[in-house]
């Protein structure tokens, strides 16, 4: 009742008795004006800071260049023979966008080189000098300083302040890809799903999950045959760099177990998305990763620890965090030294987030459910000017899908979804995260508001040949879809990932001010 009265008070403003309540009208108007002014100044303050930075940053022609929208025009070659009998039968004729996806998924496509450029175009920091130096070419083979393709899939980067070196950790996949069915199961099962009219009519995903662990009503997963694609666990690869372009192979820092079949890291199991953070209190480097068995029923996180960024890491244990299944995951270390685990759970239908303990070796009892019912995975979290941001992918196995950006004022939530951050390329590029899946967002402290978006372009038939898609990510300007309004002022800045066929960081970007 008291609540009701409180909320009824303002209705006094609807004054029917004329001048009698003009005094209260004036008072309330003044209060309203003051509140609005206060809010306005707050928002101006926030935007002002952003604006200053933007002005300052836009001095840099290279940065401006990175925020230019670059279109991509892919010509579909004429159909050749009976490349896809299923597709030919399909009626009405497939949309152009579906066709490009078909080409992407078709190993023998004439457009293969567009998505998976061959060795001749490899980025070779040892040989490439002169005008190609320091350029990223998303999707091209990227060689380490030994001349071998970098093996750090589903990875993340640690900046080690002590050695002033970047360390890139990821899945080392330089082995044969297995197929449950001998005849290219990847292609077969993915096509089954695209062609299935039931699946097409659903809005929550298009492709059969190769891992087949989310056969729930809301994810289209009929005809779920065990069409898995995986390589034996080889281990976690580590590469070091000072410039984020020239990477030296530091070897496998957490290796598979060859003989003991009961070990979590036995080569027949699954190890995905390793991430490393440094603990100031213990002086240890702590690695968290997704640990699973071959049919993805273990759904756990694993923890390993090392005295050195280049290992060897000592594997400690696995667990189901907070008692829940955990698949795609990441960890995030906040400015105050508190680290968090974020993982896809409840059959990938939602994410959970919770702080780690002081040693970063365990979760605590605190946990929040976020993005409930949204079926997001591959989380990549970052922070800018006190606001937390996250990029996630949808759940469609190895096939690419649309990224979403999310934002929160507090890391434990409430998290709000802002929409697709991808800019440029073409429509299908933007709807497939440039044919890749998020894995990490790397802050560039010397370029406030600028980040590197790191993603994997998975090659399901040959996983070791999966490519890296690195692109500039910025947090600037107003969000397209500001869900949370504060008296009409959008709370969030826009997260933008810009497509570029080639791009580089500004010269001397690493010099901190
Ligand atoms: C680099 O220089 C070579 C030789 O001058 C030229 O052919 C090539 O187009 C240049 N590449 C770029 C990206 O400017
Ligand atoms: C992790 O913490 C939980 C309580 O939150 C505790 O029960 C468990 O034993 C801890 N595990 C390890 C390995 O320390």
From TrEMBL:
Cited SUPFAM superfamilies: Arabinanase/levansucrase/invertase
Molecular function as annotated in GO: hydrolase activity, hydrolyzing O-glycosyl compounds
Annotated coiled-coil segments of the chain: none
Basic residues bias locations: 80-95
InterPro entries named in the record: Glyco_hydro_43 (IPR006710), Glyco_hydro_beta-prop_sf (IPR023296)
TM ranges: 21-40
Domain of life assignment: Eukaryota
PROSITE patterns: PROKAR_LIPOPROTEIN
Keywords: Glycosidase, Hydrolase, Membrane, Transmembrane, Transmembrane helix
Region (Disordered): 70-95
Any GO BP annotation: carbohydrate metabolic process
Entry's family note: Belongs to the glycosyl hydrolase 43 family.
Protein name (record): Uncharacterized protein
Organism listed in the record: Camellia sinensis var. sinensis
């Amino acid at each position: 009742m008291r609540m009701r009265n409180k909320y009824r008070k303002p209705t006094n403003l609807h004054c029917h008795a004329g001048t009698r309540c003009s005094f209260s009208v004036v008072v309330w108007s003044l209060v309203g004006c003051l509140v609005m002014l206060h809010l306005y100044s707050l928002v101006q303050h926030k935007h002002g800071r952003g604006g200053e930075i933007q002005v300052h940053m836009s001095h840099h022609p290279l940065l401006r260049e990175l925020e230019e929208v670059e279109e991509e025009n892919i010509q579909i070659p004429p159909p050749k023979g009976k490349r896809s009998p299923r597709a030919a039968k399909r009626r009405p004729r497939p949309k152009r966008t579906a066709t490009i996806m078909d080409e992407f998924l078709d190993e023998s496509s004439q457009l293969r080189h567009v998505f998976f450029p061959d060795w001749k175009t490899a980025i070779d920091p040892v040989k490439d000098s002169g005008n190609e130096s320091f350029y990223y070419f998303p999707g091209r083979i990227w060689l380490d300083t030994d001349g071998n393709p970098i093996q750090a899939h589903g990875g993340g980067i640690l900046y080690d302040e002590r050695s002033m070196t970047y360390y890139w950790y990821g899945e080392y996949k330089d082995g044969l890809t297995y197929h449950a069915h001998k005849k290219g199961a990847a292609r077969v099962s993915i096509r089954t799903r695209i062609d299935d009219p039931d699946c097409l009519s659903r809005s929550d995903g298009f492709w059969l999950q190769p891992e087949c662990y989310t056969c729930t009503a809301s994810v289209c997963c009929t005809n779920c045959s065990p069409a898995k694609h995986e390589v034996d666990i080889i281990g976690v690869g580590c590469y070091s760099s000072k410039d984020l372009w020239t990477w030296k192979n530091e070897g496998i820092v957490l290796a598979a177990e060859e003989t003991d079949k009961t070990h979590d890291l036995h080569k027949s199991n699954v190890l995905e998305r390793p991430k490393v953070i440094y603990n100031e209190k213990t002086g240890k480097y702590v690695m968290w990763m997704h640990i699973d068995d071959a049919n993805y029923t273990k759904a756990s996180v694993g923890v390993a620890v090392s005295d050195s960024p280049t290992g060897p890491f000592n594997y400690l244990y696995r667990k189901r965090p907070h008692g829940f299944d955990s698949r795609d995951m990441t960890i995030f270390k906040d400015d105050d030294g508190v680290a968090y685990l974020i993982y896809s759970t409840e059959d990938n239908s939602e994410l959970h987030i919770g702080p780690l303990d002081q040693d970063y070796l365990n979760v605590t009892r605190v946990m929040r459910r976020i993005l409930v019912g949204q079926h997001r995975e591959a989380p990549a979290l970052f922070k800018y000017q006190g606001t937390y941001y996250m990029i996630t992918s949808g759940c469609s196995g190895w096939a690419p899908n649309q990224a979403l950006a999310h934002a929160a004022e507090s890391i434990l939530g409430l998290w709000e979804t802002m929409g697709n951050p991808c800019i440029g390329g073409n429509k299908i590029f933007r709807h497939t995260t440039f044919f890749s899946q998020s894995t990490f967002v790397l802050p560039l402290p010397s370029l406030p508001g600028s980040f590197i978006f790191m993603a994997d372009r998975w090659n399901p038939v040959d996983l070791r040949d999966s490519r890296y898609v690195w692109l500039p990510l910025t947090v600037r300007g107003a969000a397209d879809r500001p869900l949370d309004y504060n008296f009409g002022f959008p709370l969030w800045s826009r997260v933008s990932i810009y497509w570029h066929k080639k791009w580089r960081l500004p010269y001397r970007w690493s010099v901190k001010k």
